[in-house]
Amino acid sequence: MPGMYEEASNRLIVALDFPEQEQAIELAHTLEGRAGYFKVGKELFVSAGPEIVQRLKKTAGVFLDLKFHDIPNTVARAVTASTRLGADMITVHAACGRKALEAAVHASRDAGRQMGVKPPVLLGVTVLTSLDEKTAAEAGIETPLALTVKKRAGLCVQSGLGGIVCSAHEVSDLRHELGPKTLLVTPGIRLAGTDTHDQARVMTPGEAMRQGADYIVVGRTITASDDPVGAADKIISEIQKSIEPPQ
Ligand code: C5P
Hints:
binds cytidine-5'-monophosphate, TIM Barrel, single chain
């Protein structure tokens, strides 16, 4: 079916977790046409500087994953600066509260309007998946964690964010809770039979999509592979199967 490959590859976000700008750019060129977005996290952003976003924009969309968590004025200004830089997706931490989340939404819309571009999609981070019930409780986060995730995801949507970053194991509950319009973006993805690295609970690309994910985030399965193009193609083929209408 024409266009299906493109639609499937557009749903793949590759996390460029590298310390050097050149490594990230080289891989982005190698993968051009195989990823809808490249994710720039704190390591790459801090070491390469903001120009990495502009350089990557030549190959695909950019997901700027800096998880802004601050007072409303600071979050809004950081979102304005990210929008001006050209980020297409931006993460904001739900724990900064309704006012900061709403300020982020207004800032992205205003900056988009001033630049004459579509505003970026703001994605809420609910609870870091590295926390378990014990370490979350220790940090003063309300448990059971599933409840906090649900509450914060709801707050993000009410505040006008476009989506949520969540683990594949949260996708089906959140999809049920938030309806079809909220974008669900899911890391912790592994091809069947490959190294899980430090991820505690993983899911395959096909499973995550069938559970209701709109985009999947893949890092080391591609970036640490001897054959990144082959790994990306396997993932895209799984995504494609999961979104193809039944024959
Ligand atoms: O290498 P791997 O596929 O595990 O990388 C996943 C990416 O998604 C990393 O950039 C990681 O920081 C990010 N991420 C995650 N779990 C979350 C949120 C983000 O693994 N809950």
